[in-house]
Design a protein that fits this description.
This protein is of the alpha/beta class. It has helices at residues 18-37, 65-74, 93-107, 118-130, and strands spanning 8-12, 41-48, 79-84, 111-115, 134-139, 141-145, 148-155, 160-165, 173-177, 193-198. Helices cover 26% and strands 27% of the residues. The strands form two sheets. The protein has a seven-stranded parallel beta sheet with strand order 5-9-4-1-2-3-10, sandwiched between helices. The protein has a three-stranded antiparallel beta sheet with strand order 6-7-8. α3 packs across α4 (118-130). The mean pLDDT is 86.
């Protein structure tokens, strides 16, 4: 029997670099808004990557867990969950999704938000499937109405806006959101709690190893 969902709204914190962490902080602003609708709490999930970035990797440096925790608390996170598991990799969406799904099944947040990036899309899809949960993709807004979370998303090639909610049998909910529609707001939580989570088995799910990273030049985008 599944546990009843809690009153927490989680955000997956992306530590690949400062830019992606900023997108997560924008999503956190929306999480705080949603959590406030039902007297809940906003949490950020971070991953403590134990493997180093490849020596020949190019591009911006990843964000270490400790400064990321401080940033999340400074932007209003009531709780920061730090998932610790040997085998987590910086660009391994599949491995991170297995670890996240384990934490979600144990703690049962009401909603898990992902900033809309390719990495976020992949993680959201895998972790939602592992939790047998509903996923609303590409949300431009989310709101709580009559106790239900409703996502507003473009449909039919963006010609119309659709409103989507979750089935009662597929909780908690997962959603990817357009982070640039929100602003990161400094609003220190009182007192703010750091919770370390050790998950088992996710390291076994590793399927690929990052050997190098070479970002596409801006003039070629």
């Amino acid at each position: 029997m599944k546990k009843v969902v809690s009153n927490e709204v989680w955000v997956m914190g992306d530590l690949r670099n400062e830019k992606f962490l900023d997108l997560s902080l924008r999503a956190l602003a929306k999480a705080r808004d949603l959590a406030g609708s039902f007297s809940g709490k906003a949490g950020v999930v971070l991953f403590d990557f134990l493997e180093e970035k490849p020596a020949n990797a190019a591009g911006p440096a990843p964000v270490a867990a400790e400064p990321a925790i401080r940033k999340c608390l400074a932007h209003g996170a009531d709780k920061v969950y730090l998932i610790e598991q040997k085998g987590l990799t910086l660009h391994g969406a599949d491995v991170c999704a297995f670890a996240l799904a384990e934490a979600v099944e144990e703690r049962r947040p009401a909603l898990v938000l992902f900033a809309l990036t390719e990495f976020g899309r992949e993680m959201a899809a895998i972790s939602a499937r592992l939790c047998n949960a509903g996923l609303i993709s590409d949300c431009q807004n989310l709101r709580v109405e009559n106790g239900r979370i409703i996502g507003t998303c473009p449909a039919w090639g963006g010609e119309i806006m659709a409103e989507i909610t979750y089935s009662d049998t597929h909780e908690p909910g997962f959603a990817t959101i357009q982070p640039n529609l929100f602003s990161a707001v400094e609003a220190k939580a009182d007192p703010g709690e750091i919770i370390r989570i050790s998950v088992a088995g996710s390291g076994k799910m590793r399927r690929a190893k990052l050997l190098s990273l070479s970002p596409e030049p801006l003039d070629e985008k």
